[in-house]
Design brief:
By secondary structure, the protein is mainly beta. It is built from 3 helices and 12 strands, in the order ααββββββββββββα. The protein has helices spanning 7-17, 21-26, 165-168, and strands spanning 44-46, 53-56, 66-73, 84-89, 92-99, 101-106, 109-113, 118-122, 127-132, 137-144, 154-159, 163-164. A hairpin with a 2-residue loop joins strand 6 (101-106) and strand 7 (109-113). The protein starts with 6 loop residues before the first helix and ends in an 8-residue tail after the last helix.
């Protein structure tokens, strides 16, 4: 009762029990199959990383082919320094920035995304997202699963090197 289970733990446990994660998180199974609506500011909150806010946007829809999230990452100047927190999981992912500036690191490469930008990638590639520019970043993340069994297992690890297209161009202050 002193610590929340992580989304990854809940997902793995649900897989072992052959049930949907919503069964564990809400006490009943997803029952919608035609459509579901999630209003602005709503969604089923989950804990994945300290300080980050993840809201599942379709927890009541059964047999999903993807898992949509609304994500908020606070600006933290310490996050800009190694070691970086990378994750991997099966499937593909699309992130669409709706507020702020997001640095997405993919293996040894990275991209800087602004409001309205999106990135689509193979999520088995180690990846990490960091807020830039001194403000919180907000984006939609859509994780496309390789099968119909729900979100893939996530693996976390830390790394120290990542060059961006801005780094390679030798630009000192890309945000300003």
């Amino acid at each position: 009762g002193k610590k929340e289970f992580t989304f990854t733990f809940i997902y793995k446990f649900a897989q072992i029990c052959n049930i949907d994660i919503t069964d564990l998180m809400e006490g009943d199974s997803p029952s919608l199959s035609v459509y579901t609506v999630t209003r602005k500011g709503e969604g089923l909150p989950i804990f994945r990383r300290e300080g980050y806010t993840y809201n599942r946007l379709a927890p009541r829809f059964k047999n999903k082919l993807s898992e949509p999230f609304h994500v908020k990452i606070p600006y933290d100047p310490e996050a800009l320094n190694p070691p970086y927190h990378y994750v991997t999981h099966e499937g593909q992912e699309m992130n669409i920035v709706i507020k702020g500036c997001l640095k997405v690191m993919l293996g040894n490469q990275s991209e800087i995304l602004y409001e309205g930008d999106c990135i689509y990638f193979d999520s088995s590639t180690p990846h990490c997202e960091i807020a830039l520019g001194g403000t919180e970043v907000e984006f939609y993340s859509i994780v496309i699963n390789p099968d119909e069994n729900g979100p893939a297992q996530q693996k976390d690890y830390f790394a120290t090197v990542s060059e961006t297209n801005v780094d390679l161009a030798n630009i000192d202050h890309p945000i300003s």
